[in-house]
Amino acid sequence: MSIRDLKDNNNIEISSPKSMLAMHRTGVTQKEILYVPESAFLNKHPDQLIAKTLYTQHVNLRQKAINILKQEYNAIISEGITEEERLVFPSISKQLVKKTTELDGKYLKYADNLGPRRGEIKQIVKKDQQLWTQKREQIEKEEQQYVNEWKTKLTEQEQQTQQIIKAKQTEMLSASQTLKQTTEQQIKEHQQKHEQRVKESLFPPTLVSDYLTKTTQLREERFEEKYKQIKEKSNKASEQIQKSKSFKDEQESEYVKKWSEYADEVQEYMKRAEETKQKRYENLISELKAKDEAAAQIKIKATQQKIQQETQKKEETTKRLAMIEQKTIEAKEQQQKERTVQIKQKLEQIKQVQTQQQKVSTEQTIELKQLAEERIKKVQEATKLKQQKDEAEKIKWLENEMKLRERQMEAILKKRQEDWLMKQKAIRLGRLQ
Fold it and tell me: Coiled coil: which residue ranges (predicted)?
């Protein structure tokens, strides 16, 4: 399933390569996309208000993660991917690969070919940690904003309750004062009326005074009872207000405790996430090391095999060269023997000619000696060059040198023969004259 199949209230295991690449780039995990229903929060937390707030927060965070994944998914489709990312996800088509291979600082699982790029991998992991810290800071800011909003709401509620209490107290005091004033006025009016009646009547004044005193006492007692009742009501109201305050304080303390517990849970979740991330990074590094070691062992084995093959080839070439040298030496020895025989024959002919020639100069013999010495030196140099140069080149060089020397010797002998013939002709001409 892909990211496009995600909705508000469904849980899907993402398996498509593009969506997996988007998750690795953004750092969003499968747990952050899972949908948890509201009933789970209500069953877990006794306070419905806290459970609902946690549920709304969960929905908002999940929606943010889904939006981030969708943006990255669209960016992958529009902008393309790198060759390194395609090595990790080879099922993605080659059409999405960019021409310029640049690692954009995204989190990756690395293939075997990414072993020598450990510096780039470290940069990627650092940038991924920065993204994780930014996300954590955003969550903390949102939590702080949520707490501040609730604090402001509670302070506003307290102010409203205090205003209501003060208004009720003022109403009760004003009502008690009005009752006192009305009762006093009624008593005064009644006394005045009673005095007038007494004056008009023929009863003795003592009876009237006694009646008045009794009535006043009864009225005072009734007034005191009413005043006590009013005081009791006011005391009950104040007690209720105090109870409401204490209840609110308890609710606030419970809310703070629950919020602190939730913050602790969030911190533990963040720590676990960081630990899991570090473990993943360590596992990646260990996998890369193992892969590098395996690749290095494979390369070492391949190099050893190549070295063995090369050594075998060298041994074969050395054997072949030795055989060629032996053959060339034998051929050269035969050629030298044949040439020595030819040279001896030619020298005998020359000696015969020299015996015939009495005026042959000794310079020719010196030149022949020098040529022979030069030839010996060049042969020695050629033998030295054989040891230094490759065998095939040495053999070719020696063959060319021998051919050149033979040509030179043939040219020299031709010149000498021509000189000798010229001298013979000159001698003949001199004799004829």
Answer: 173-240, 271-334, 368-415
